[in-house]
Amino acid sequence: MRISDLFIYPLKSARGIAIPSTTVDVFGLIGDRRMMITDPQGHGITQRELQDLARIDVEPGTTSIRLKMQGKSDILVPPPQPERRMEVDIWKSVISAAVADDEANSQLSDWLGREVKLVFFDGLAKRIANPEWASGDTPVTFSDGYQILVTTSGSLKALNADLAKHGEGSVGMERFRPNIVLDCEEEWAEDRWAAIEIGGIRLDLVKPCARCIMTTQDQATGSREVPNPMPAMGRIRMSADRRVPGPLFGWNAVPRGEGTVAIGDEVTVIEERSEGWAFKARRA
């Protein structure tokens, strides 16, 4: 089993970037979800609320970050000043984040048709993952809850097979916004894995990922007039564990070391669960 794809999402809920290799640190993949868009009060905004975020491309640079959207003039965002800060919140976490300059925020607000702010998870920002699942003081950035999302090709194939069985269109892996995609052909094998190792880095698979309306949106346009994976997940992937309700796809992982990972790297399962995750009975 090997890595088939790697992705980072520099701006939360904007377009992802496919990469051949990257460094893993305590926060996950370098450059992943280090920026977020908020309303003026600091509440994080995602595609769930603003579908147009799927149209934003991010080009990280050494002296500035370039934001691009078709039909709009590019926005060049200089590094934020550490003293320019505001409290922001995402999924009940409150974080002191650095704020982009007024010009960038004004241009971005014009793009999106509402007042917004661009904020950064810089060296002064602090956030801890839910210790019920991650254990200890596990740091995390602006991701929904954990550092890395792992998915497998075999599970996507199984999901699309159910969609096809019911005359519904197939979906791509981009709908699930993973960081690491594995070429494991066995469907749902990841439900048994407690830990995997890549390049000497241990990744603990701590919690399955409950899926939301974002999986129903085209990740290039934000449109919801596209094939919808939710019916299939409702038929075959509904959690029976009240701690993580809803349809599940992929696993949240916590890195227990640092190093580099690359497409083609071998992946080893080093620990399995005594029992897989509990699911409701499948519907025909």
UniProtKB/TrEMBL annotation:
InterPro entries: MoCF_Sase_C, MOCOS_middle, MOSC_domain, Pyrv_Knase-like_insert_dom_sf
Pfam families to which the protein is assigned, alphabetical: MOSC, MOSC_N
Chain ranges of the MOSC domain: 113-270
GO MF: catalytic activity; molybdenum ion binding; pyridoxal phosphate binding
Classification via SUPFAM superfamilies: MOSC N-terminal domain-like, PK beta-barrel domain-like
Protein name: MOSC domain-containing protein
